[in-house]
Amino acid sequence: MVMIRTWIEPIVAGAQVASSFYDTSLLMVVKNHYNETTSFTNSSHEDVLQKAISNFYITYNLILGFTPILSAYILARIGDRSNRKITICIPMIGYLVSRLFLLFVILWDWPIEVMFGSAALNGLTGWFTTYWGGVMAWASQDSSESRRSLRLIIIEMVYGLAGFVGSLVSGHIFINLSIGNRQGVILVCCSLGCYVFCVLYSIFVLKTPDSVETDAQKEKKKNKSFEEIQNDPGNSEYTEKSRLLENDPIINSVPGDQTFLTPSKLILIMMFTSVILFNVASIGAEDVINIFVLKKPLSWGPVEVGYGNAAGYVNYITSFLGVFVFSRCVGDLGLIVIGMLSFNAGILIMAFVRWTYLYYVGK
Fold this sequence. Notes:
This protein is mainly alpha-helical and 363 residues long. The protein has helices at 9-37, 45-66, 68-81, 86-98, 100-108, 114-124, 127-141, 148-176, 185-205, 215-222, 226-230, 236-246, 265-292, 302-326, 332-350, 356-362; strands at residues 178-179, 182-183.
């Protein structure tokens, strides 16, 4: 039972379902708001509407992107020094409180600009930056070195599957479940309910894991330390240990020669640069695509928007299968190239999307 209480997967699943509900409801609420309040002629209806939604999301995403810079660092430092639950609990509370604002916008007709304050509050409590970093650190601490990669892959799969399921049903909830003429109230309440579960689970159920011993540490406990054995040269273990150390190429390397442990600074700089550029391209493309699908030729509604978001989460499953298959044939560099080429091919297809099926092909 104690071991189960260290599992972070329930929070990952609950938070991602909540986020899927929120993303669909926010997009549709923003669209409905500007559709009712913006003045335009019939000929310019879709262009003006798309511009208004684009401006909203540009400001909203900029606030979300910049506000967590300092808070994420502070929370991470506090979490490392005291309790890792801080990097989970604080962002979850921030998500819960900040996303209450959308419910107020729907129920009491608050101005849509209130959501900029919601984004700022979300960012100041760490946002996804702190939350996901905390999840990865938690999973690493709760797993042995030999099973760490498997644990991280499982968490990614849980994240993708939860987002897939949440996105599939979000559009149906938005349309079919409402209070009066207030579409989206039930969907936002479902999202908030998932966040309440995550907050309560992280505070009262989740137990900070003790550092799991690595295989090397376990082996060291089974055997006497080399220093202890040295005190007894007649011990057979000493002879065997000495023989292993003499033949160890790392132990017997040239003193001070640590280059095999230090990666090239140029490679690190190029890796960071490529990751930044890739994220800029992918996030920018996703922002444009999410708004593009609302106008002709696709003219999607809430259900189709939910299905489109679900298609994006399928990437987590196909990526896992792709890595599993291609890792046997190519190295890490080959996997990186394959990933970038597949992304470029998908975005190229998206540039010519005029039918829904082609959107899914590009995804």
